[in-house]
Amino acid sequence: MQNRPLRVAAIHDLSGFGRCSLSVILPVISTMGVQVCPVPTAVLSTHTGGLGDVVLRDLTDYISPALDHYQRLGLDFECVYSGFLSSVEQVDHCLDFLRAYQGSLSVVDPVMGDHGKAYRTCGVELRGRMGELVGEANIITPNLTEAAMLLGMDYPHEPLTVAQIRSILAKLGELGPDQTVVTGVNLADDTMANVGYDRARGAYWRVNCTYVPVSYPGTGDIFASVLVGGILTGDSLPIAMDRATKFLELAIKTTYSYGADTRYGVMLEKSLRWLTEDNILTGYQSL
Ligand code: PXL
Q1: In whole angstroms, what is the distance from residue 200 CA to residue 136 CA?
Q2: Of 57, 84, 161, 200, which sits most exposed with the smallest number of CB within 10 A?
Q3: Which atom of ligand 1 is nearest to the CA of 44?
Q4: What pLDDT, in 10s, does the model give residues 135-180?
Q5: Which atom of ligand 1 is nearest to the CA of 111?
Q6: CA distance 271 to 268
């Protein structure tokens, strides 16, 4: 037997500046002791959140030949984790990847939008097909905007009751994933929470977030990356959610204290160390 770190194929874009997608996924998952093999869907000069005219090079013709190469090498991946896609065809390429590694953990972050709006790179057709990927996943991590898009419902601008968010989680579970985590949910009890659902157990979870009056790009990618790293290294779903929420709180509060430009993302460099510590995590609750 050859021991080695667990391995994740990460199918996401590489945004050079602004601390999102592969720029944060690689350091987060690596720091958690898991190898990340980036499979870039596109290369961008920055993320698309307000930094002007982005230079984008689409890599749609890259993913399939890269998968073929990995198969020829006989490489195993214990997890396939997909996110931002820059074309509709990439849905098929991700499906090929998931099927090629069928026994592995499949995590789909259906990156489509935020704050009730679609990202400008994510057109109607791509939004329509993201559900197919979600249907093949073990774990999905939409934010509330993406959850609404997946369910074809209007974005809920008002805080949600526990019954409403449980119903949203259950409907997302009906799309196929075993475990569903929805991030950034305003609840009617005046809290903001990350919420989760384990379909087989019929269990609903919440981890409350500390409110900070700013929003940074890339936080969804960081959340999902800590979740992936946690689950792969033995966390239960609620513990992994707690780990991801606590880490983001640290990164966000650190960054906010400096008054840094929010478009530059969170100061991950100052927080990564926390992921190597043996933290006691008891912050999750039943929902
Ligand atoms: O964090 C999600 C994301 C990923 N990739 C690109 C983005 C964004 C969010 O704005 O612009 C290119």
Answers
A1: 16
A2: 200
A3: 12
A4: 999 999 999 999 999 999 999 999 999 999 999 999 999 999 999 9
A5: 2
A6: 5
